[in-house]
Amino acid sequence: xxxxxxxxxxxxxxxxxxxxxxxxxxxxxxxxxxxxxxxxxxxxxxxxxxxxxxxxxxxxxxxxxxxxxxxxxxxxxxxxxxxxxxxxxxxxxxxxxxxxxxxxxxxxxxxxxxxxxxxxxxxxxxxxxxxxxxxxxxxxxxxxxxxxxxxxxxxxxxxxxxxxxxxxxxxxxxxxxxxxxxxxxxxxxxxxxxxxxxxxxxxxxxxxxxxxxxxxxxxxxxxxxxxxxxxxxxxxxxxxxxxxxxxxxxxxxxxxxxxxxxxxxxxxxxxxxxxxxxxxxxxxxxxxxxxxxxxxxxxxxxxxxxxxxxxxxxxxxxxxxxxxxxxxxxxxxxxxxxxxxxxxxxxxxxxxxxxxxxxxxxxxxxxxxxxxxxxxxxxxxxxxxxxxxxxxxxxxxxxxxxxxxxxxxxxxxxxxxxxxxxxxxxxxxxxxxxxxxxxxxxxxxxxxxxxxxxxxxxxxxxxxxxxxxxxxxxxxxxxxxxxxxxxxxxxxxxxxxxxxxxxxxxxxxxxxxxxxxxxxxxxxxxxxxxxxxxxxxxxxxxxxxxxxxxxxxxxxxxxxxxxxxxxxxxxxxxxxxxxxxxxxxxxxxxxxxxxxxxxxxxxxxxxxxxxxxxxxxxxxxxxxxxxxxxxxxxxxxxxxxxxxxxxxxxxxxxxxxxxxxxxxxxxxxxxxxxxxxxxxxxxxxxxxxxxxxxxxxxxxxxxxxxxxxxxxxxxxxxxxxxxxxxxxxxxxxxxxxxxxxxxxxxxxxxxxxxxxxxxxxxxxxxxxxxxxxxxxxxxxxxxxxxxxxxxxxxxxxxxxxxxxxxxxxxxxxxxxxxxxxxxxxxxxxxxxxxxxxxxxxxxxxxxxxxxxxxxxxxxxxxxxxxxxxxxxxxxxxxxxxxxxxxxxxxxxxxxxxxxxxxxxxxxxxxxxxxxxxxxxxxxxxxxxxxxxxxxxxxxxxxxxxxxxxxxxxxxxxxxxxxxxxxxxxxxxxxxxxxxxxxxxxxxxxxxxxxxxxxxxxxxxxxxxxxxxxxxxxxxxxxxxxxxxxxx
Length: 1031
Fold this sequence. Notes:
Layout: H1 3-7, E1 11-17, H2 21-32, E2 39-45, H3 48-58, E3 63-66, H4 73-78, E4 89-94, E5 97-99, H5 103-114, E6 118-125, E7 131-134, E8 137-139, E9 145-147, E10 153-154, E11 163-164, E12 172-176, H6 177-182, H7 193-205, E13 210-220, H8 230-247, H9 250-273, H10 277-291, H11 294-306, H12 312-318, H13 324-330, H14 336-344, H15 347-354, H16 359-377, H17 379-384, H18 398-406, E14 409-410, E15 416-417, H19 422-433, H20 438-447, H21 449-460, H22 467-479, H23 482-489, H24 492-511, H25 524-539, H26 547-558, H27 563-586, H28 588-594, H29 597-605, H30 616-620, H31 641-646, H32 649-673, H33 676-681, H34 690-703, H35 706-712, H36 719-744, H37 756-759, E16 773-778, E17 788-789, E18 796-801, H38 817-830, H39 837-841, E19 846-852, H40 869-876, E20 881-884, E21 890-895, E22 902-904, H41 917-921, E23 929-930, E24 934-937, E25 940-945, E26 948-952, E27 960-964, E28 967-969, E29 972-974, E30 978-983, E31 987-993, H42 997-1023
Parallel strand pairs: 1-2, 1-4, 2-3, 6-13, 16-19
Antiparallel strand pairs: 4-12, 5-13, 6-7, 6-12, 7-10, 8-9, 11-13, 14-15, 16-18, 17-18, 19-21, 20-21, 22-23, 22-26, 24-25, 25-31, 26-30, 27-28, 27-31, 29-30
C-alpha cells in the first residue's frame, strides 16, 4: 500500500439499488470520477442480474452483492458488515443520488478535522444545480423535523458553512465504521426519513457529532415539488413515535409522550372536523403500532442505554424548542387549505349565525374589518418576527428564565445573588406551557398586545347603551400613534400599558360604582383580589401601571357629590388602595432584593432617561414619531367634542370624568418631562411617555359616549351646536381611520427589519470557549438592555455575558459593590485620565466594549442617539482598546488587556492591592489562562484547572464553590469585590453556585401567594358576574 493510501482512511461506498435505471449509470459514473484514492464501491441489489451489466460497463471494480427482496433499506445497509472489513468509513448512497467529484474527499477531510461521525453533503437538484434541496434538519422534542434551508432555495453560497445538524436527509451520508457497529446500524423496522432520524439520534446519544458539509455536493432526483403520499405519511408518523419512545430516558420520555399524546389528540380532532379521515386514521394507528411493539421497544431501549454517553438534557438543547408541527399550523404552513374548506362547509352554518342581523352582526363585522387592517399592517412582523432591540429582548429557553428567578444568581451587572424578578419567572412558566416555544411566546407578548388592548377598550365601553359607542372608542384607540411608535422604539412597557390600562380602568369604574358601571353586588374583597392580581401581573414588567388606578381614583373621588357618591368614593378608594398594596405584597421578595426604599422608588418612578422635555405639539398628538408627522394626528383630540358639548346628565358626567383622566395623563407627562413633578416630590421622577397611555384611554372613553349622546341628548342642544359638534367628531374619526389605513401599507408600522445582532455577530460565541462580558455604552433608548447612568449627560452602561443580552437584562437589581467598582472604572476611562481603560476593565472579564449609536443597524429603521464627542475621544485614545470593523450604528472595541472571567496564571502575579485603579493601570492581566470553559449554565461551569489561584470575575458570594479533586473549595475575596479559589491540585473541576435556603423560602412563599390570589380571583369571578345596565 502506498503512503498516499495510508494517509487516506479506506471508505466503502454502499449503493443500495432499488431499480432507478435511468439514474444508475450517472450515479456509478460519479463514484468512478471521485478524486478520493482509497474508495471502494459495494452495490447491494435484490436483483443483481439487472444491474450487473451497468456496473461492468461503468465501474468494473465495484463489488456486487445480492440482498433479500423484502429487506428494507436499513436491513440491506446493515448487510455491509458481513461483506467488507477494514473500512474506516461507510458512505451510504441512494441510487437516485450522484456525487460531485470531490464530495468524498471533502466529507472525509471534515470528518477527520472535526472528529465527526455522521456527515452529510449539500443536496441540490439533479436537473437544476442552482437549487438547494436539503442541508440537514433540526428536530423538536417530538421528532418532527424543520429544515435549515427551504427546499428549492436558490444556491448563492449563503449557507456554505459547516453546521451541526440533528439529522440529515439520507441521500448520501458518510458514517464512521466504529460508530455504525457500536450502535447496531440502522433500525430495520423503520423506513424513509425516520431511519436516519433514528440513527442520528442514537449516534448523538453515543457521543457522536452530526455535521452538514456544504463543500461536498450531491445531486438528487427528488425535487422541491415532490409530494408526500399517504404511505410516506403513515410511515413517518409511526417512525417518529417509535424513535421518541426508544431514544429518551424515562425522565424525559414521560412528559414528552404526554405532550405528544395531547398534540395527537388535537390533530386527530382537527382531522375529523375537516373530514380528513385517512389522516386521522394514520395519527391513531401510529400510537397503536407503537403500543403493539412494546416488547421490541424494550429491547431497543436497553441497547440505546448500553451506548449512552450523553444525557437527554444535552440532547434537548440541540433540538428545536416547542412543537414544530404546531407552530407550522398556527403560521398557516400546514392545514390552511383544509381550514378554508371547513369554513365553506359545515362551519358555514356557525358563521351564518354569527353574522345574523343584530348587534352581534355589527360587532362581528367591525372586528373582522379592524383585525384585517391590524393584521395587514403587521403582516411582515408576523411572517418575519420582531427583531431584538430596545425592550424587545431575546427570550432564552424556559429553563434559563426559570433559573434566573429560582436559582438565586443572575448574570446582570457583575452578577447578583438573591431571588429574581417575578416577571422573568412568569415568562419561563408561560414558555414551559407552550412546550418551550419561546419565539412564539415572544411574538404573542409583543404583537398580541395591541389586539388585547382593543378588546379591553371594547370591554370598558360595553356598559354604554350603544354598540356604536364601542365601535367609535375602539376604532379611535387603534388609530392613536402610541403602539406603533412603541414598536419602532422597542418600548414593551408602553405596549403592556396599552393592553392592560382599559381593563384596569373598567375595574376602577366598577369599584367606584360610576354609572353605568355600578350595577353589581360584587364584594370589596373580590374586587381587591381581581384588580390586585391584574396590577401584579402587569407591574412585573411595567410598574407604572400602579400609578394609573391611584390617579383615576383621585379623579373619581373629586367628582363625587352627595352622600351616596361619597360612600361610593370611599368604597372605591379602599378597593384601589387595597389592590395596589396587594400587588406590592405579591412582589415583596423582589422589592426586598432591591434593598433600600430609595432604590425601590427609583425603580417605580424613573421609567425613562433624562432627556429633552416633550413638546406640547408632540404630546397632544400622542408622540407620532415614525407613525407620520401629519396634521391628521390632531384629529383624535376632537372626536370627544360631541359628548362634551351636547351631553346631559349621566352621559355628560362620564364624558367629563374621562376627559379629566385625559387631562391628568397629559399633565403627568408634561410635568414629569420638565422636572416639576420631581421638584414637588423632592426626588427624581421621569415617567416618560407612559402617562400618555392613561390619557389615551380617557380620550377614547370620552369619545365612546358620542353615539349615545347623539341619540339621547342631541335634541336638547341648539341646532348649530349639535350639527357642528357631530360634524367635527365624525370627520375627525374618519380622518384618523383613513390615516391608519394609509400607514398599514408599510406592513411593519415603521418597525425595524433587523437588530444589532446582525452588526454584532462577532460577539456571539454560542457558549463555546472562554467566558467573557460585553460592556454596553449608549443612550438608554438605543441600548438592548436596561442600563444605569454613568458620567454626565445621557450616557448609560450595562453588561451582558457572552454576547447579546436577553430579556433578563431588562430588570435592575440593587447596586452592588462590584458593580459600583465597574462604574468607577468606566468613569475613570471616560474622563480621559488614563489611556489604559482596558486594564481597568480586565478584572471584570470585559472583552468587548460596544458603543451604541442606533438601536438597529444603519440600514434599518430605528432610534438614533449620537454619542457625545468627549466619549468618542476618550475611548479612541485608549491604547488597549482596538476598534473592530462593524456597522456604523455601533462602535465595537476589543480589549487587548482582557482576562477571562474564569482565569488562572501560569506565572505568579501580584494580586494584593489590585483593588485600586492606580495599581490596575500598571498591571497586565492579559496573561491569564482561561479555565472552566465548559459552560453548563449561569450557575455551573466545568473544565480543567491547574493548581493555585482560580480567579472568578463575579460579585463575591459565599455560596459559590469550586469542586476539584474531591474537595469543595470556598471563595476568598479578590480585587476587593470578586472571588478567588485556591485549587489544591490540577485536574477536572466544577464551579457551581448553591442556592441559599432563604432564596428558596422566599420563592416558595411568593409562588404560594400568587397561587392563592389567583384562585381567589377565579373563585370570585365564578360566584359573582356583574351585569351592566344601560346609561
